[in-house]
Amino acid sequence: MRTSRRIAVAVVLAAGMAWMASAGERSITIKLPSISVKSTLIAGQEIMNFNWAAQLAFKNYVESNVSGVTVELYANAQLGNGPEILQQCMQRVVEATTTGEADLSSYYSELQIFSVPFLFRNRMEFYTMLDSDFMQRMYDDIAAKTRIRIIASFDNGGFRNISNNVREVKSAADLKGLKIRCMEIPAHLRMFEALGALPTPIPFSELYTALQTGTVDGQENSAMVMMDGSIYEVQKFYTLDGHLISPAYIAVNEDWLASLTPELRKLVLDAGKVAQMAARGAINASESMALDQMRAFGTAIYSPTAEEKASFGIAREPVVAWLKEQISPDLVDEYLNVARSIQSGTYQAAATVSPAAASATVAAGADTMGYIVAIVVLAIIAAILIMMLVKKNAASR
Questions:
Q1: Would you state the pLDDT for residue 45?
Q2: pTM here?
Q3: What is the phi/psi pair of residue 363, to 5°?
Q4: What is 344-385 written as a DSSP string?
Q5: Whole-angstrom Cα distance, residue 279 to residue 173?
Q6: What is the side-by-side strand order in the sheet with 198-201?
Q7: Per residue in 95-149, pLDDT tens?
Q8: CA-to-CA dists, residue 98 to 54, 145, 154, 291, angstroms
C-alpha cells in the first residue's frame, strides 16, 4: 500500500513539474522579416541598412540575455512584400515584423497624420513626437484594434526631398508643371497639387526606368532611398526641402506578446528599445555619406534658404483639411498642437504610467497569479490522493 501511495505522489509531482516546465522556460523562435536590403554600397563601402541594423540589434539583445530563444531574421522581402509581412504578423504567422506608416495606415487610418507636410524642422523634433505621450496612446490603440504592438519607432530613411531632371528647385514656384512621381497616398497627391506640380503615382520598381525615359520629370525620396534604388544616376537636381519624414517600426503580435512569461515579455520590449536606438543611429550616420556620394556623381544638391523653404508651406493647409475629413478633426488638431509645443520647446511628457505599461503590469500579475493558483491546485490534488490512499490502507488492516 505504501508503494501505491508513493506512485500516486510521484505521478502528481511529475505532472506538476511538467506543467511548470511547459509554462516557464521553453524553446521559442521569433521570426522578424523586413523588405529592406541588408546594406547599400556608398563610396565603395557597405553601409548597413537601418532596418537591418534594428533587426540585428533586436536579435543580439534577445539571444544574449536569455537561453532557449532564437530570433530568425529575414531581409530583402524573403517572406513577402510590406503588406504581406504585416498581415503575417497580424495573423501570428510570424511573431514580429518591420513595417511603416504607409502599410499600417491601411489598418489604422489615424496614422495618416504623418502626411502633414513641412511640419518637422529636424529629426530631434520628429523623434520627440515618436516618443511622446500622444503617440504612446496611439500605439496602445493600434494594439487594441489591430493586435499589432509597436515596440520600436524610427524614421523611414530620413526626410523626403524632391529631385528632377528639368531645373533646380529653390522654391514652390519652381515646381509648377513638373511631373513628380509620388506614392499613391491621397494626402501626398494633394500636397504636390497644392505646390503646382503634377503628381504621378508609379510603382517604385518602375521608377528608375520612368525617370530614365522621361515618363516623369522627378520624384521624392530620402537620400538613402536614392542610393538604394540608384535613382541619383538618372536625376540632375536634388532639393533638400524636407517636405515629409515618415515613421518606420518594429512591431510584434499583441496576443503572442501577452502569451509570454513576464520576464520574456520585458525582454522583448527592452529589445525593441535597443533596436530603436540602433536604427536611429544607422540612419543619421549614413545620410551624410549618401549626399556626398550623390555630389561626387554629379547630382546638384540645393539647400533652400529659410525664406525659400517657407514658400513650400502653402501645401500644408490643403492636406490638413483633407485629413480632417478622413479622420477625427480633434485628433489632427491635437497632433498639430503637440508638434507646435515640441518646436517651441514647451512640450513636457506626462508623468503618468502609460496604458501599455499598466497593461503589462496587469498581465505580469495575472501570469504570477496563474502559477500560484496552479501550484495550490496541484497541492490540493496531491493531498486528496494521499488521504484516499491512507483511508484505503486503514480500512484494509
A1: 85
A2: 0.80
A3: -65, -40
A4: HT------SPPHHHHHHHHHHHHHHHHHHHHHHHHHHHHHHH
A5: 35
A6: 198-201, 179-182, 218-221, 160-164, 237-244, 300-302
A7: 999 999 989 999 999 999 999 999 999 999 999 999 999 999 999 999 999 999 9
A8: 9, 18, 11, 25
